[in-house]
């Protein structure tokens, strides 16, 4: 390698530095990354000040991240990268329920509960009754599937954003298991649209670009069953005013559902409810792993 590198020769030298990477995929990724980053810097004529600002920004993204706040995932989300990776890797088409983002608020520390449980954690709000079914692509029930679900409260906050109020207890999230007919059901409270966190470095991007930070109302699901592709998805309220301006590009027409409103009466689980409540009912279809569609 020459020690007299120029703007035109530095890229080839940096790419060549990864030539001895034993893993061919790692070598491909590193070398492509170097080429694209160098091309970007040349195209925009990146200044010293801008480079230092970018490095400081990434340091602060790391400092903001925690076990309950994934700022790097949020950064990927608002840049559209998370959705792009999902679109590249999950060609479901008509065969299965469409996937979308995991989001920054999934945590492993969630209660495992039986079907019919109230997962609200005592957080007040409009009662919500969710009923779902998990089928394979032939319409047969998938029994024993694990169904992770989580959502915000009626003010747009997740439990991990309210540690003092909830005394670090999980709420509005749970892990359920489908019955022999592929069904699952639970009670919670109705979520609301909310802003992505803007108190960190990613918020600076949102303000600088004058983008709305408001995510449309939704419920998260992560479904897993042996022999099937895992499915990470969301269900979105059909009449939400922010459906077409989702700052993380996660809303999809195929995932828009009705949050049906009901007067006080009998809920889907047979319990009497003396206040207005809402219901969501949806069927999820999983792809068997051996039939994943090629790109």
From TrEMBL:
Domain Intradiol ring-cleavage dioxygenases: 103-263
Keywords: Dioxygenase, Iron, Metal-binding, Oxidoreductase
Start and end residues of each Catechol dioxygenase N-terminal domain: 23-93
InterPro entries from the UniProt entry: Catechol_dOase_N, Intradiol_dOase_C, Intradiol_dOase_core, Intradiol_RC_Dioxygenase
Cofactor: Fe(3+)
Keyword Transcription belongs to the record: no
Domain of life, per lineage: Bacteria
UniProt family annotation: Belongs to the intradiol ring-cleavage dioxygenase family.
Name of the protein this chain belongs to: Hydroxyquinol 1,2-dioxygenase
Organism: Nocardia terpenica
Organism taxonomic ancestry: Bacteria, Bacillati, Actinomycetota, Actinomycetes, Mycobacteriales
């Amino acid at each position: 390698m020459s020690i007299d590198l120029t703007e035109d020769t530095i890229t080839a030298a940096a790419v060549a530095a990864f030539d001895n990477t034993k893993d061919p995929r790692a070598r491909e990724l590193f070398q492509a990354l170097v080429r694209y980053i160098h091309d970007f810097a040349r195209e925009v004529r990146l200044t010293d000040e801008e480079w230092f600002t970018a490095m400081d920004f990434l340091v602060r993204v790391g400092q903001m991240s925690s076990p309950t706040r994934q700022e790097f995932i949020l950064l990927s989300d608002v840049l559209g990268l998370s959705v792009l990776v999902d679109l590249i890797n999950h060609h479901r088409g008509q065969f299965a329920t469409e996937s979308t983002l995991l989001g920054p608020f999934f945590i492993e520390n969630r209660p495992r509960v039986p079907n019919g449980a109230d997962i609200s954690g005592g957080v007040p709000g409009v009662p919500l009754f969710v009923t779902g079914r998990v089928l394979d692509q032939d319409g047969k029930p998938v029994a024993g599937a694990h169904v992770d679900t989580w959502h915000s409260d009626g003010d747009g906050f997740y439990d991990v954003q309210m540690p003092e109020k909830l005394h670090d207890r999980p709420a509005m999230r749970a892990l359920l298991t489908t019955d022999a007919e592929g069904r699952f059901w639970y009670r919670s409270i109705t979520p609301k649209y909310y802003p992505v966190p803007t108190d960190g470095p990613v918020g600076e991007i949102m303000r600088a670009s004058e983008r709305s930070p408001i995510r449309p109302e939704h419920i998260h699901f992560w479904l897993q069953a042996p022999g099937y592709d895992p499915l990470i998805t969301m269900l979105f309220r059909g009449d939400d005013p922010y459906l077409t301006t989702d700052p993380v590009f996660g809303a999809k027409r195929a995932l828009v559902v009705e949050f049906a409103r009901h007067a006080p009466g009998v809920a889907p689980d047979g319990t009497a409810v003396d206040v207005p409540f809402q219901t969501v009912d949806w069927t999820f279809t999983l792809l068997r792993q051996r039939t994943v569609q090629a790109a």
